[in-house]
Specification:
The complex is a heterodimer of chains A (337) and B (540). Chain A is α/β, with parallel strands linked by helices. Helices cover 52% and strands 11% of the residues of chain A. Classes of the chains: A alpha/beta (337), B alpha/beta (540).
Chain lengths: 337, 540
């Protein structure tokens, strides 16, 4: 029987989503690029590179055939890195049909075009019923069976209900929101603050500074989001402050590591080389900075991180400058509506 | 529409609405009695301020319902509800008569030109061959052949921009000249009371829309009427802007109610397995060098009374001498009204190919009926369908801006206004307008320079397909453009819009300068801030 749901992308987050759906008892197809990995998942039921020893749900079946994973499958999750997103979306566009649901769980903004992932899906496929899954969800914790919550944002209530049915379980609460733009931005822009959190951790600035960073970071995220049309309340939810807290607290994320290394005085090129790939926050910083310039927004924190990343400013100097910026109101009245 | 056919449409409309409300009430939704009370409330409010002949019968009708309702049994209540729906439907339904339609579309424009020429009978007699016709002044371009072809493969919705009450006459005429069957059109009540064309309106494919009626049930009847007639294969004329553009700008935001009926009709066609179920929406952009009601419209816009004065009763449109002036201007100056038929869209806002197939954003053919599937069945879903209509609406807005034709009048007004604005450095549009009078002037070369710059930007945008320009604007002869603009501006309006005195151009009517300038609003030309179109951005 054809499964009613598939996941495109066999990375850490894609495999975890497939696993969570499988735990709910649904048959799920997992598309991976490499045949070896598909074999590993189907035979040994592991994805060692990303999820270590974890025994994957028996309801998962891996495939390398994109057509099989897309054609006629009512709900398709797209969980590929933002860099590969457009290319994947275009390939899906050859195979999908207007009655299908596409749900993406990819954080990021496209360089140059500034497009969000849902906008790329709209540009590359005929599907309109699109949703985004985002929230404070560290894959290893979920795989270890620890409880968490997440947000499914969509303009299509039926899609949100469907995703809740597929994912909600004893360890996963799934909340619905209709603000796609806000949820996508929350998930993307928090990565920038995470780089700052990494720097702060390396510089041993303490817990007060961390709270300052998270709160002012949220205020900037909201300002950019609202200027682009998001609902300010979205940033008070799981996909906003929720995701920001977890990202800034966890020392394991790539963005956090980038921040640490920068504070140690390493150059961005060198860091990218050792990380093996660009952390989402690095690209997001440039895109967000360009958007903020275009909209003439005040974003001192973002500007500081941008200058450290792209203009070679030392984090210590950036910190001094940030502390000198004229203080604004604690609560931005523009955001309360 | 034949009488028997009309009765069938009417009973279908009322039947569906009564059915819908009964079912909703039965499944724990709103009781019928409440809906009747709501209609009573809205109609009573309307009748407080409205005192036409039509209202006498309405007053009696609602008084009797008000008497009966308190003691009505559930089945009586349903009857009262049905009688209101029936009444609304009767009021909406037009009396279409094909013979009169032919007469109207062929004689009306000729009649108008003859009327103008009768002002100089000598000319009429001596040069009978050269009697100007509307044809010489209406320049139709774009996807006319596609429209003709797709009209045979499904039902067509013609969706023009709305600048003037002349639009409906003009579109009726254009559609007739294309050799297409008449379109169904919801005309405002004020058009029917207009002595000049009221008679024709009643007998075109028009049905009546009373915009004073605020009852949601009345709107439901209107939408259902459009839906049912579409299902019977009658092509439609919708003005998605809802009302004439007060500011003069191209519509940046559309009303979705009527547009959304295309999805309902398409779904019903699919469920009933009709032979040609598809519905094609054609954006049409009309560009006038002069707008008949321009002065009233811009005043209304500036008074910000646009909402309360939704219906302007006594504008230029109802005054015969203004028509004559307008037509005389049109003919004597050899002015061209541009009508651009855009590429067709499906009800979901997808492009439609040459043979009527829907295309995805990358041009791959898709099956649009699948947008309506829920668990394998064609089904309604308000939230989903609302999103589809939003997509269609924003595609139409894009098309309007792309197909808008920049004419010499717009170019002159835009360059002139923006130069004045820069000189005064006044950011508030109202204060700026107040500061302008007939003593305000600019040196001709200054304006010419600004036009030169504007033409450069326009030609870049035109190359990118973001706007169209008239052949005169395309030639780029600044003197010619100024000359043409001044001539038009001196012709029709009671005061010249811009006036030349020696080597300087003087403000004639500041509001009208703004009005004609606004046709190029929203494109970010000359780095000018938007006056109106903040909701729309040109696609990069």
């Amino acid at each position: 029987m054809k499964p009613s749901v598939s996941v495109i992308g066999g990375g850490s987050w894609g495999s975890t989503i497939a696993h969570l759906i499988g735990l709910c008892g649904h048959e799920v197809l997992l598309w991976c690029r490499s045949a070896e990995k598909a074999d590993e998942i189907n035979v040994q039921r592991t994805n060692a590179k990303y999820l270590g020893e974890l025994q994957l749900s028996p309801h998962i079946r891996a495939t390398t055939d994109l057509s099989e994973a897309v054609k006629g499958v009512p709900v398709v999750f797209v969980v590929v890195p933002s860099k590969a997103f457009r290319e994947t979306a275009r390939a899906i566009g050859d195979l999908c049909s207007p009655d299908q649901y596409l749900v993406h769980a990819t954080k990021g903004l496209e360089p140059k075009s500034h497009k969000r992932m849902s906008e790329i899906l709209l540009q590359e496929t005929c599907v309109r019923q699109i949703g985004v899954l985002s929230g404070p969800n560290i894959a290893p914790e979920l795989c270890a069976g620890k409880p968490a919550g997440t947000v499914i944002a969509s303009r299509y209530p039926r899609l949100a209900t469907k995703v809740q049915e597929l994912l909600a379980s004893e360890i996963m609460r799934v909340y619905a929101n209709d603000d796609v733009l806000g949820v996508e931005l929350g998930g993307t822009l928090k990565n920038i603050v995470a780089i700052g959190a990494g720097m702060a951790a390396q510089m041993e600035l303490g817990e007060n500074a961390k709270a300052l960073l998270i709160t002012r970071g949220l205020s900037e995220i909201s300002r950019v989001g609202v200027a682009l049309g998001a609902n300010p309340m979205t940033f008070a939810g799981l996909a906003g402050i929720g995701d920001l807290i977890v990202t800034c607290s966890s020392p394991f994320s790539r963005n956090h590591r980038v921040g640490r290394r920068l504070a140690q005085g390493d150059k961005l090129e060198a860091i990218i080389e050792t990380l093996g790939m660009v952390a989402e926050g690095v690209t997001a910083t440039r895109v967000a900075w360009e958007i903020a310039r275009e909209l003439r927004l005040e974003t001192p924190l973002l500007d500081g991180i941008f200058r450290v990343l792209y203009e070679g400013m030392h984090p210590q100097t950036a910190l001094v400058e940030l502390m000198r910026v004229a203080s604004q109101q604690d609560i931005d009245q523009l955001l309360a509506r | 529409m034949r009488k028997a056919h009309r009765e069938k449409v009417k009973s279908e409309v009322t039947g569906r609405i009564i059915d819908r409300h009964t079912k909703r009430a039965a499944s724990g939704g709103r009781p019928i009695e409440e809906t009747v009370n709501e209609s009573l409330y809205h109609e009573r409010e309307r009748l407080k301020t409205s005192h036409t002949d039509r209202d006498v019968a309405d007053r009696q009708f609602y008084a009797s319902i008000r008497r009966t309702l308190p003691h009505a049994s559930p089945s009586q209540c349903k009857q009262l509800f049905a009688s209101i729906v029936q009444r609304y439907t009767d009021q909406v339904t037009g009396r279409f008569n094909p013979t009169v339609y032919k007469l109207a579309t062929s004689v009306l424009p000729f009649g108008l030109s003859a009327l103008l020429n009768s002002l100089s009978p000598k000319r009429l007699l001596s040069r009978l061959q050269d009697v100007p016709t509307l044809d010489d002044h209406v320049n139709v371009q774009g996807e006319v052949d596609t429209l003709r072809r797709l009209q045979k493969q499904g039902t067509v919705i013609v969706a023009p921009t709305h600048s003037s009450n002349l639009d409906s006459v003009l579109m009726g005429y254009t559609i007739y000249r294309m050799g297409l069957p008449p379109v169904t059109y919801g005309a405002g009540l004020n058009l029917f009371s207009n002595k000049i064309i009221g008679f024709f309106m009643h007998n075109l494919g028009a049905y009546t829309v009373d915009r004073m009626k605020s009852d949601p049930l009345y709107r439901e009847v209107l939408k259902e009427y459009a839906t049912v007639t579409m299902e019977y294969g009658q092509d439609q004329l919708f003005f998605p802007g809802g009302t004439r553009s007060r500011s003069g700008a191209v519509e940046a935001k559309l009303k979705r109610g009527l547009l959304g009926t295309s999805i309902g009709a398409y779904r019903n066609n699919l469920i009933n397995r009709r032979p040609n179920p598809r519905i094609f929406v054609f954006p049409v952009t009309i560009s006038y060098p002069l707008v008949l009601e321009g002065a009233t419209l811009i005043d209304d816009y500036l008074q910000r009374a646009g909402r309360s004065r939704y219906i302007i009763v006594d504008d230029e449109f109802s005054r015969l001498e203004r028509w004559i002036e307008f037509m005389r201007g049109l003919f004597s100056l050899d002015l061209q009204i541009s009508i651009t038929v855009g590429k067709p869209l499906d009800p979901f806002g997808n492009d439609v190919g040459e043979d009527g197939e829907s295309l995805d954003p990358r041009g791959r053919p898709i099956d649009p009926s699948r947008y309506l599937l829920i668990d394998g069945e064609y089904a309604e879903d308000d939230a989903r369908d609302h999103e589809y209509t939003s997509a269609l609406s924003s595609r139409l807005v894009d098309a309007y801006h792309r197909d808008n034709v920049a004419l010499a009048e717009h170019v002159l007004a835009f360059a002139f206004f923006e130069t004045l604005r820069r000189e005064s450095q006044e950011r508030d549009i109202y204060r700026l307008l107040r500061s302008l009078d007939s003593e305000t002037s600019l040196a001709l070369p200054r304006v010419a320079e600004e036009i030169e710059r504007l033409l450069g930007e326009l030609s870049t945008m035109e190359r990118r397909g973001q706007i169209r320009v008239s052949s005169m604007v395309s030639r780029g002869d600044v003197d010619e453009i100024i000359h043409q603009g001044l001539l038009s501006f001196a012709t029709y309006h009671t005061r010249p819009v811009i006036e030349r005195r020696g080597v300087r151009l003087h403000v004639g009517d500041a509001n009208l300068i703004l009005f004609y300038r606004n046709r190029l609003d929203g494109y970010r030309l000359l780095d000018a801030p938007n006056v109106v179109s903040n909701e729309w951005r040109p696609a990069v």
